[in-house]
Amino acid sequence: MSNPDAKTLTLPATAEPPAASPAPATPAATASQKPAPSATSPGAASGPPKLHVDDLHVVYRGRSGDDIEAVRGVSFDIHDKPGIGELVVFLGPSGCGKSTILKAVAGLFPPTRGQILIEGQPVSGPGRDRGMVFQQYTSFSWLTVEQNVEYGLRLRGVPEKERREQAARILKAVGLEGFGSKYPKELSGGMKQRVAIARTLINQPKLLLMDEPFGALDPQTRWDMQGMLIDISHREDNTILFVTHDVAEAVYLADTVYILSKRPARILHRIDIPTFADRSLKVKASPEFRKCEEQLLSLLYSP
Length: 303
Description:
Shape: globular
Structural class: alpha/beta
Distance between the termini: 26 Å
Largest sheet: 7 strands, mixed
Helix content: 25-40%
Radius of gyration: 19 Å
Number of strands: 11
Order of helices and strands: EEEEHEEEHHHHEHEHEEH
């Protein structure tokens, strides 16, 4: 199910910017069209969606005691695409409620109204089927990188030999091979986030939830991390929900972008992003990439 007032668009890299004002759903553009995820689209598995969010409302009590409406009537589906990997980005202004949606899916914020289903099962709290990576570094300072990564497996009683093998595989996947014996204080910011991603991926969650995980990194490290995330998404067959307010990051990473309103968060547009074959540094300077940025900006900041 999707928001009835949200507009669904596909951004061809060479198209003129679409109309910016919210409107009832209309057919997506056909040029350079990438099919939207649906139960019948190629690559989508049959059965219930991987994630189903229906009429989500979240109101919570603020520090001053006032009720804060963070999310209003958000609905969307994400279907499984076996062997492909799916990266969905929530894009909106700071403080609009993007992170609240993510935390509701994680089971950290109970919905005030509406429902969240993962493969048809209701979310009632945190669970192993979801893993979350925050902007802040969350490693245990007294454990080595390897011990941090295998921490969840140890809690589940996985034998040591198997833990070490899985940790070695995932550390290699995130570019930390040879750093297993280091402690977090010996790592750069980007490396600490690689540890957090590895610690989450090793538990094989159905959904990887990422709340502006690269926001505190310098531009070059951020670019490297974005490339690594795309590689991991395809290699590990992950479904990733990613929160950002960086338009260039959204264009580079996303298969699909949901543009959110100011708080309380509502979905204004669902955008299918064209695939860029070139993922090198120069792609951000290409006319096609810049055109997509301009189109998203026109939608994000429309009245």
